[in-house]
Amino acid sequence: MAKGADTRNRILKKTRKLIVKKGFNNTSISDIITATGVKKGNLYYYYASKNELGLAVLKDAEQEFFDLLSASFKGEKPLEKLWNSCAAILKAQQKANFVGGCLFGNTALEMSGGNEEYAEIIREVFRKWTALLADHLRQAVSAGDLAQVHSPESLAKMIVAVIEGGIMMSRVSKRKTDLEDCLQTLRAILAR
Amino acid sequence: MAKGADTRNRILKKTRKLIVKKGFNNTSISDIITATGVKKGNLYYYYASKNELGLAVLKDAEQEFFDLLSASFKGEKPLEKLWNSCAAILKAQQKANFVGGCLFGNTALEMSGGNEEYAEIIREVFRKWTALLADHLRQAVSAGDLAQVHSPESLAKMIVAVIEGGIMMSRVSKRKTDLEDCLQTLRAILAR
Questions:
Q1: How confident is the model at residue B64 (pLDDT cuts 50, 70, 90)?
Q2: What are the pLDDT digits (tens) for B158-185?
Q3: What mean pLDDT is predicted for residues A128-133?
Q4: What is the C-alpha separation between B157 and B152, in angstroms, rounded?
Q5: Neighbour tally for A9: CB within 10 Å
Q6: Which residues of B touch A161 (CB under 8 A)?
Q7: Best exposed site among A48, A62, A105, B133 by fewest CB in 10 Å?
Q8: Which of B109, B169, B182 sits opposite A106 (nearest CB)?
Q9: Is the minimum CB–CB distance between A165 and chain B shorter than 8 Å?
Q10: How far is CA B124 from CA B104, B121, B157, in A?
Q11: Does ipTM come in above 0.90?
Q12: Model confidence at A1, in pLDDT bands (50, 70, 90)?
């Protein structure tokens, strides 16, 4: 049991790295076999198809992302918690040297046009993330730390857009400063 | 001469459609031949390789994008011009039913890690676009229509991020409202 879970986890993590680097379509089964060291028959024992493996990789990354978010909503005030969660994402991207960018954003662009199962997971990630941010924004307004906003949901959505767009720009420029500038500016504007 | 320019233009536009839909890597030479109706030898007469054709497609799209931007910076006041340019992008995306998204954003994610020539064009698009927006923001501050911002360049970058991230979200949700909400919220916050 433990060994099976280990193997499964190794397949998920190594395949995620490949997908982040090369995209889903350009990652072949033989790439996966080389990277994981798992034999072909064994790989198909765990995941019946590349599509199924791709879905499992996305779900595993989703879990990890929301664990990271939960752990990073730290601080005394709701707005502080929100900015700390954004800082945690910046830090994670920086740790990866902005190589690869955001798996969900990438998959959104690569796969969502043609694969409804993938699109649904990405939509769910954006929906849950937006809801968490909106919650903190509402609390900040109640606490008087944020000026009344027309719609906390729309502002939350905009924050997600800033992060996804900022990651894209940092990925192209290979400079941390793009995403960082975007977040600092957002913070300064909302503090007004 | 005229016929050559026509053929060249048809190749660029049809190939762009394929790349927007399928990505660069998944677009094959035979897809391009089928879509353009140009024979293989003729295609290679115009573009020596798929890489060269891809670069020409990006440069052609860049030209078209900045033509669209220039034409859309209309209005009496700088901030009005800026929002009109954002509205023109929303309209163009809507016209395409949010299928495909932004060619530059897609290519940023698909190609910029591995192909420095592509990355440089995308960086240039983001740089020029940011500079145009920053210019309008500076004018708006001077005219007293926008509260002083720490850095017009960073705010301009953030606006580009909102648009790129918003297009990504609308592409996944297939709903205009994601990009629209992001832009409306941004506008409301900056009006404060």
A1: very high
A2: 999 999 999 999 988 888 899 999 999 9
A3: 98
A4: 9
A5: 11
A6: 161-166, 168-169, 178, 182
A7: A48
A8: B109
A9: yes
A10: 10, 5, 13
A11: yes
A12: low
Judged against a pLDDT cut of 80, whether residue B113 lies above it is answered with no
Please list, in sequence order, all residues whose beta carbon lies within 8 angstroms of the beta carbon of residue A114, skipping any fewer than 6 positions away: none
- Count how many residues are written for chain B: 192
The rounded mean pLDDT for chain A is 92
pLDDT tier for residue B107 given thresholds of 50, 70 and 90: confident
Rounded to the nearest integer, the mean pLDDT of chain B is 92
Q: What angle do CA B5, B6, B11 make, to 5 degrees?
A: 100
What CA–CA distances, in Å, run from B61 to B13, B32, B64, B153, B167? 9, 17, 5, 24, 17
Residues 6+ apart with CB under 8 A from B101: A109, B20, B93, B167, B168, B171
As a three-state string, the secondary structure of chain B is CHHHHHHHHHHHHHHHHHHHHHCCCCCCHHHHHHHHCCCHHHHHHHCCCHHHHHHHHHHHHHHHHHHHHHHHCCCCCHHHHHHHHHHHHHHHHHHCCCCCCCHHHHHHHHHCCCCHHHHHHHHHHHHHHHHHHHHHHHHHHHCCCCCCCCCHHHHHHHHHHHHHHHHHHHHHHCCCHHHHHHHHHHHHHHCC
Burial of A102 (0-12, 13-18, 19+ CB in 10 A): buried
Residue of A168, A174, A186 to mutate, testing the B interface (most B Cβ within 10 Å of its Cβ): A168
Closest CA to A188 of B142, B179, B163, B189: B189
- The kind and range of the H/E element at A171 are helix A152-173
pTM for this predicted structure: 0.94
pLDDT category at A79 given cuts 50, 70, 90 is: very high
Return the closest-CA partner of residue B66 out of B114, B124, B16.
B124
Using the predicted structure, report yes or no on whether residue B1 has a pLDDT greater than 60: no
Question: Torsion angle of alpha carbons B100, A156, B130, B77, nearest 10°?
Answer: 110
